[in-house]
Amino acid sequence: MISLRQRAYTLELQRTFRVSRGASDVRENLFVEIECEGTIGLGEAAPIARYAQSCTTAARAVEQMVGRIRNPRAFSQAVEEVWVAGQPAAAAAVDMALWDLAGKRLGVPVYELLGVDPATIPPTSFTIGIDDPETIARKVDEAEPFAVLKVKLGSSDDKALLSAVRRVTDRPLRVDANEGWSFEEARANLVWLADMGVELVEQPLPAARLEEMGTLRKISPLPLIADESVANAADIPALANAFDGINIKLMKCGGLSEARRMIDVARAHGLRVMLGCMVESSLAITAASHLAPLVDWTDLDGHLLIRNDPFVGCLLLDGSVVPPPAPGLGVRTRAGAEI
Ligand code: MG
Asked: What does the DSSP assignment read for 72-116?
């Protein structure tokens, strides 16, 4: 017998978060508890407005999916069997909760179920949002624990922004253009960014421009990573010649089970792998961290951008986001959190 509880929760951002598409101060995510045989599995959905998801549509999808689960012990098959089209964030929440249940039932952390070693997790980047040069300098200062910084570009003053970051740090930089450039802009920017010590660029062109991406890749001095161009494993073969790597996010692909498949498919196509996130609490970020030993780059800073994180889980160790050595996801409610 499975029972379900869900609750929408407003995550308050530390600062207004600006990317090339717009700005916001809060996010509404959905927290899910699936109870089975006396154990509770936790899940989180961060619905993506760009893909027509909200907490309301996600909650409805979670309810449908949980109602259709026949065997919660078959946790890596369950979500695929009960999938609701167009609701990957809801699927991610259900899948995450089932992995949590499995780990708790067996008394081992999810990373042990996956057979991976958290000591090998690459350091996470920390995102510096679009801002004025003084604020950027302060943010870079505050980001001292992080070995790698990610800069969101794709606006008209990209050079000023990146130069402002470069002036105050010599740490490796990653750039995310969030589909903000044309082919010509990308071509010029990539050469300049390579000179500035940038190590990779995420999603330079709009997702639909796959053919141009193939051309750009051939002349790019930097590795190009797909984000908006890739959601799940089925997307990977078509873009294998247009990018050098992919950014996997639980909320795009529908959970740990699909993310694991994506890593395998990406490797089979010679692609490198980044593990990223949306604005998420420590619950979903901890879930992702269990997979992180399998990837080349991590960008797991979503929980660090919010000030009312209701969960405690992953640790920040030497700049890496590491899952705790506790059964399941290893996440618990923060003392005093109203959830
Ligand atoms: Mg991105």
From this structure: TTSHHHHHHHH--TT-HHHHHHHHHHHHHHHHHHHTSBHHHHHT-
